[in-house]
Amino acid sequence: MDVEGKKPTNPVKAIREFCLGCVGNSSNEVKMCPSVKCPLYPFRFGKNPYRTKREMSEEQREAAAERLRKAREEARKA
Predict the structure, then answer these.
(1) Which residue has the higher pLDDT, 64 or 77?
(2) Residue of 3, 54, 48, 58 lying closest to 25 (CA atoms)
């Protein structure tokens, strides 16, 4: 779906575009939005407030670093 000729990259960005259009394309007005009962209200800044940051254990971090090292070596060989 096109929003004013733009294709948002993801649903949360589409919500941000919708909120901007709702208040006249003013970021400041989005910030001061009085419609707290709107189901899109928590997403109005273009971020998902319910998404938690992934935490990696030390073992997972080491394994990821090893995979990256191997991938870089393979890329150099090719």
Answers:
(1) 64
(2) 3
Query: Is there a contact between 29 and 23 (Cβ–Cβ < 8 Å)?
Result: yes
Q: Tokens for 49?
A: 């407030």
Parent domain of 18: 1-49
Other Cβ atoms closer than 10 A to 14: 18
Cα–Cα distance between 45 and 48 in angstroms, integer? 8
Q: Kindly report the CA angle at 54 between 65 and 37, in degrees rounded to 5?
A: 155
Mean per-residue pLDDT for 18-27?
Answer: 91
Assigned domain for 57 exists: no
Contact criterion met (CB below 8 Å) for 52 and 60: no
Q: Which two tokens stand for residue 64?
A: 């990821």
Residue in the structure block whose two tokens are 């004013």: 4
Which among 9, 27, 19 is positioned nearest to 43, based on CA atoms? Answer: 19
